[in-house]
Amino acid sequence: MRWIWLLASVTIGCAHAGAPPAPAAPLAIAPDSLISEGLRQADLVVLATPDSLVAEPMIAPSVQFGSSNAWWNARLTTEAVAKGALKGAKRMDYGSLPTWQTPPRPFKLADNQVMIQLGARWQTAPVVVGQRAVYFLKKCYNCVELPHRTQYRMSVSPWFAILTLIPDRWPEVERLAREQATSEAHRATVARAAASRSFGTGRSEAPPD
């Protein structure tokens, strides 16, 4: 998974299995190109403060990492959103796991709160309780296999932080998010116009850059 944290590896903290990832500092200096790439890859970008951290009992990938307690849920209280919707990050996506086997939510979440996951051996951007920052979050679909609780292989879809910036960068993140949304809307409009013309002429036409 070549996500943005590979480009921002300076922010990554290593950790031992069985302990939360070590604290690390959010990026204070990041070029527009890095922020723009983070915006493209992220599903949710927020200005937020993590306020609680608890172990995630269902994600215990001992076959992969050799630890039965190597994952955590973090609750983030958000102040503002630059991209995405908070409602998508309210609970762990356990995939096809039967409802009666899924654990209850580890937190009570207010409307402005979300829940993400941290893995001790996964390289994720820093998420530290009490550290207000700009968090670029991405949902990793079916990327973590559950322990062998049944004869079937089941995977879950956790949320990860792929980039973390100091809160002073929030105005710049908002600006770039608006520019990116405007550019994407323009490309979509051009593509629809090209499709409409090709339908009228009976031939396909590639939209201009």
Helix/strand/pairing class, anyone? alpha+beta
Name the helicity range: 10-25%
Strand content: 15-25%
Radius of gyration: 19 Å
- Beta strand count: 7
Low-confidence segments, ≥5 residues, pLDDT <50? Answer: 5-18, 61-66
Query: Can you give the mean pLDDT?
Result: 78
**SSE topology string:** HEHEEEEEEH
* Helix run count: 3
Shape call: globular
Q: Main sheet: which strands, in order across?
A: 3-2-1-4-7
Distance between the termini: 28 Å
Largest sheet: 5 strands, antiparallel
Overview of this protein structure:
This protein has 209 residues and is of the alpha+beta class. Helix content is 22%, strand content 24%. The protein is built from 3 helices and 7 strands; from the N terminus they run H-E-H-E-E-E-E-E-E-H. It has helices spanning 32-41, 62-65, 170-201; strands at residues 44-55, 71-83, 113-119, 133-139, 144-145, 155-156, 159-165. It has a 5-stranded antiparallel β-sheet with strand order 3-2-1-4-7. A two-stranded antiparallel ribbon has the order 5-6. The longest helix is centred in the C-terminal third of the chain and has 32 residues, at 170-201. It is globular and about 55 Å long. The two termini are 28 Å apart.
